[in-house]
Amino acid sequence: MTLYAELHRHLGGSVVPRILWRYFQRNSSDKISQFIEYTDFEEFYTRKRNTLDEYLELHTLVESVQTEDSLPYFIYRLLRGAYIFENLAYLELRYTPYLRTPEDLSQSQRIDLMASIVDIVGKTSNSLKYPIVTSQILCMHSRLPYEVNKAIVDLAAQKREYVCAVDLAGGDRYYRERLDELVKLYEYALSSGIKTTGHVYETKDGCYQELLPHLMRIGHGIQIPLLYPELLPDLAKRNQCLEVCPTTYIKTGTLEDIRQLKLVFERCFDAGVDIAICTDNAGLHNVRLPFEYENLLTYDIINFEMLQSCQDAAFRHAFAWPYGERPASILNDIYSRNNLK
C-alpha cells in the first residue's frame, strides 16, 4: 500500500458534505433549512464559484460551527477518512484559530482563547487510533488586524508541539495595501524559528514578489510558472516547493481547464522546482487526494514518474515529518530485511 503526505488542507474546507450535513441536522438545522434534501446541499456546497472571494465565503459556513465543543467531532471524522480512504501517513492541517473563537467576545478575549483551540486540535489528533503523523499550520488572515496576526505568530512559537508553521490566507487581492506589515510578520516568524508558507501567486491578483524570499514553501504559486517563469530559478535556489491543488483552480474560476496545469508542471520540472500535489479543501470539492493524482494522470498533465517525484517531494518538504525517508522506503527496507532471513 502506498502512503501519502498532504501538505495543504484547510480545516474549514476539509469537512466532506455528508459529515457537515449530519452535523447541521443534529445541532444547527436552521443552517440547512433552505435545502429540501441532502443532494441540494451537496450541490450548493461543492459547485464551482466565479471568484476566489466567492469561494472563500463558504469557509465562514464551517468556521462558525467549528467551536471548542465541536472540533473533536470534526477532527475525528477528518482523520478517519484521511487514513481509510486516502492512505495518508502525514497531514498538515491549516486554519485561523481566531476564527474558531466566539464572535461576541472582545478581540483580546478571542486572542486569549486561541491557545485552547490549538490544544484541542492537537490533543484530539494525537489521541486517535489512526496512525497518521499530524501537525498544524496557523493561518494569519488578510482581513484580520495586525495585532491578531502577530498573536497567531506568537502562538505558533508557543505551541511547537502541535504547530509546525504559519501561513497567510484570506484572499490574496487584499495583501497589497498591507504588504509592508505582512513582510514584517514573516520576518518576525522566521526570526523566531517558525517555518513559513503563504497563499501567493494563486490568482493573478496575488502576485507579490516581495513575499517570496520569506516563504519556505509557496501555497499554490501556479501563476509563477504561468506568468512569471523567470522567477523559477530563484525558487529552485531557495529550495521552495509549490503546494499545487488542482481542483481548487477550477472551483474558484482561476483556471478554465485543468489541462492548463500541464505548463505549470513542465516548467517547474524543467527548472528544478518541486511540486507537492494537495487537495486544499477536500470537503468543499468532495475530492480526496488519490483522485487529484488520478485526475492529473487522466488528463495527461503528468506521467507516473512525475507523480512519484511529486509524492516524494511532499515528504521531503513536510514541515513535521519525523523520518528521513517516505513510508514506502521504510517498508521496502523492512521487506528486504525479512527476505534476507
Explained architecture:
Its EC number is 3.5.4.4. Residues 5-319 form the Adenosine deaminase domain. GO terms for molecular function: adenosine deaminase activity; metal ion binding. Keywords: Hydrolase, Metal-binding, Zinc. One of its GO terms (biological process) is inosine biosynthetic process. The protein is of the alpha/beta class and 341 residues long. The chain has one domain (4-329): TIM Barrel, CATH 3.20.20. The chain contains 15 helices and nine strands. It has helices at residues 17-27, 38-46, 52-63, 71-86, 107-127, 146-158, 179-191, 223-227, 232-237, 246-251, 261-271, 282-285, 289-298, 304-316, 327-340; strands at residues 4-10, 88-95, 133-141, 163-169, 195-196, 199-200, 217-220, 241-244, 274-277. It has a five-stranded parallel sheet. It has a four-stranded parallel sheet with strand order 6-7-8-9. Strand 2, helix 5 (107-127) and strand 3 (133-141) form a beta-alpha-beta unit. Helix 4 (71-86) packs across helix 5 (107-127), helix 5 packs parallel to helix 6 (146-158) and helix 6 (146-158) packs parallel to helix 7. The longest helix is centred in the middle third of the chain and has 21 residues, at 107-127. It is globular and about 50 Å long. The chain starts with a strand and ends with a helix.
